[in-house]
Amino acid sequence: MSNVILEMRNITKTFPGVKALDNVNFSVQQGEIHALVGENGAGKSTLMKVLSGIYPHGTYSGDIYFQGEQCQFRDINQSEKMGIVIIHQELALIPFLSIAENIFLGNEQAERGIINWNKTISKTQALMQKVGLHESPNTLITDLGVGKQQLVEITKALSKEVKLLILDEPTASLNETDSEALLELLLQFKQQGMTSILISHKLNEVKKVADSITILRDGATIETLDSRKDAVTEDRIIRGMVGRDLTHRYPPREAKIGDVIFEVKDWQVYHPIHAERKVINDVNIYVRQGEVVGIAGLMGSGRTELAMSVFGRAYGKQISGTVWKHGQKIDTSSVHKAIANGLAYATEDRKNFGLVLIQPIKNNVTLANLEAVSERGMVINKPKEMVVAKDYRTSLSIKSSSILQETVNLSGGNQQKVVLSKWLFSNPDILILDEPTRGIDVGAKFEIYTIINRLAEEGKGIIVISSELPEILGVCDRIYVMNEGRIVGEMPTEEASQEKIMACIMQQAAEVTAA
Amino acid sequence: MTTGTTLARDNAPTNSIIALFRSNIRQYSMLIALIAIMVFFQIVTDGTLMKPVNLTNLILQNSYIVIMAIGMLLVIVAGQIDLSVGSVAAFVGAVAAVLMVEYKVNFILVIIASLALGGLIGAAQGYWIAYQRIPSFIATLAGMLVFRGLTLAMLQGQSVGPFPTGFQKLSSGFLPDVFGSETLHVTSLIIGVVVSLVIVYLDWNGRRNQVKYGFEVSPFGLFLAKNILVMAVIIYMSYLMASYKGLPNVLVVLFILIVAYAFFTNQTVSGRRIYALGGNAKAAALSGVNTKKLTFLTFVNMGMLAALGGLIIAARLNVATPKAGTGIELDVIAAAFIGGASATGGIGTVIGAVVGALVMGVMNNGMSIVGIGIDWQQAIKGLVLLLAVWFDVRSRMKS
Hints:
The complex is a heterodimer.
Chain A: E1 4-15, E2 18-29, E3 33-37, H1 44-52, E4 61-66, E5 69-71, H2 76-81, E6 84-87, H3 99-103, E7 110-111, E8 114-115, H4 117-131, H5 146-159, E9 164-168, H6 176-191, E10 195-199, H7 203-209, E11 212-217, E12 220-226, H8 234-242, E13 260-270, E14 278-288, E15 292-296, H9 303-310, E16 317-325, E17 328-330, H10 335-340, E18 343-346, H11 350-354, H12 361-366, E19 374-375, E20 379-380, H13 382-395, H14 412-425, E21 430-434, H15 442-457, E22 461-465, H16 469-475, E23 478-483, E24 486-492, H17 498-514
Parallel strand pairs in A: 3-10, 3-11, 6-9, 9-10, 15-22, 15-23, 18-21, 21-22
Antiparallel strand pairs in A: 1-2, 1-4, 4-5, 7-8, 11-12, 13-14, 13-16, 16-17, 19-20, 23-24
Helix pairs in contact in A: 4-5
Chain B: H1 2-11, H2 17-44, H3 52-77, H4 85-101, H5 107-131, H6 136-155, H7 165-172, H8 186-212, H9 220-242, H10 249-267, H11 269-279, H12 281-286, H13 291-317, H14 328-338, H15 350-370, H16 374-398
Helix pairs in contact in B: 2-15, 3-10, 3-13, 3-14, 3-15, 4-5, 4-6, 4-13, 5-6, 5-13, 7-13, 8-9, 10-11, 11-13, 14-15, 14-16
């Protein structure tokens, strides 16, 4: 306990009527990577907001010591001056400004209000070197992929002479390669003596890079594990997070698989803007009744594009190919027709594509099938609508004050359940679930998996798209592997493994390079 | 933290009057503000404001603002804006005037043709906005210039009038009194009483339905007080108007429109979808809502209501002028925002927009009676708009 850089003592933060943080103690040593884990709503983000001054001094009780000095931050500028920098889960970059402009936003290299562009650019280049970002400083953010955007955020943090870097779910939207690179970078920073706090749901990452792990549950510190002393297993962390042993991370599954219910044949899709680019190339897939089919692949491999183009041509141009249900060709040329023909697609981006956040649970649940709660498909029968919403709130145990609560106030897991409710109420035969458990905690994940099982038992065909290979292996009966817009592998789950799936992807990538 | 907050809400006393008031303050705040403004001007004008003659005038003066505010509300809820309504109203008024005065076309045909023309203009603008993805601010700014220009061209800088009496009745006529009493317009009073009874019945029926499905309802005392108040206000207003010339025709039109559009936004599938479209267009589209068509139709509807507004303006002045309706798009937009609509879409009510229009109308009227010049009236109205929206934003942040 020699070199403590940050010490937070007895932090208590209350919101009207609820204690979000209850006497939390949290200390970070100089030069370590300290992981902060806990279920959604455990208080991780609140603790970090207290630390960075987003919740100013006086709105919480307790003391913060940074480098031995007591700190009473009134806003985020003060904490940044001390060298504490947060990178939030949702990236805060301005899309139509360049890398250099974004990095020095709020910290412009200016004399008397006039920006010195040469200085800005040369400093940007130097910083980009450090993180291994090889782009022109004048590139617009919108032209970068998510992985590189994340690097820009880190570069921005470095430009502020950061002493303590806080990363909130940095890999949530990154693919495996980019995540890997980011973690490497963190380790590299550590060798240079930087301290970081890593908030993450991905326990394999935590296990890989963290020196110590602090677990929060229900606003209280449960324990701090030191992985330098003895190895910490994922199960050990989960036990701390949920307060019990979660022996089965995936509910047991007894598949009763019937005939083919859904087929996509010879599917081709071109990019909506770059018209010559083929995004989906000659895809053929099928799903049987009661079967859960996984689509594995890296981010950008075309999984979402495949799903959305099938679902009412919501993505892409010059789409060709046919869609079949029960051996008959069906029309899915608009979202409305796709829904009418028994398709449902639960998006990977529930905030932007899944929910009307300013509306209550009730309105979101019925949105895709309003006709079913209406007289002659025209006039909404409100009591009936409320009964429907209440039923889903109960059966999917959506934690909320009532069905009238606005969805913006729900946690990620509960928002996901509202999205699922919406699609269950549309009564589909085929459900496509795109990253159904992204950014939600272990407990809620288990509930979602249970729902998937239940739907399969009812005889529906289910497609699960996921970047997390253990999840694909845990919930699916059969797996397609996708890469660069093609299906590059297909295997029953019994024969599949993470290595085998990655091998499929790599093999095809190698073929492409060779050709 | 969200789960924590919800737990706290679960424990909150939902039945107390204070909690109920708090949860509804947004809904009622502008109504309370309207009443306060009315009481204020009633006092400073020594009771002129609520005199039967003035009350009738107030309605005649503001009817077209209210009508267009209803259309604008839908446009704003859908996440768009329409700057062209003033010019469209003037253009349709001009076309109608030329048809009636120079070509002697029957006025009923003219009214139908004008509404169709308005719908067509709305369709043209809606096409650019919905299908060609031109931002509505720009498309309708263009429309504002185009149709003002066309109005000038159509009228060649002249005023065209007067109109057949039948057409004038649209704006200046009153319901006939079947009882023929000298002092009191009995028919109007009876209509007022019947309407208030129907409103109370509907509210009671809705409450009974909610109880049947086992939902929480507001305490009976509050329900009773609210309905007695509503009844009293409606009957008193109709009594006031009955003691002058009775109910104006335009008020009947207004009432039908308000009821129809309130029903449309609250109870119908299409209405609900407009709110979803404005709240999150992408999510709505992925839920099977035809967002383009719906946006298009919202502008068609706006065009028709702007046309109706233009006809009423023309009928009221008994002449079509090139300057008619100049600047009223701003009053109409202000009405919707004062009534609680959100500039980012997805939030707003028809009743709110009507109340917003009445707030503006009462202020115009009251300030004119007091003798405040048009210059200061503008400035004060601007500040009221700012304050109203500020209040709304603040109460939204708190909730």
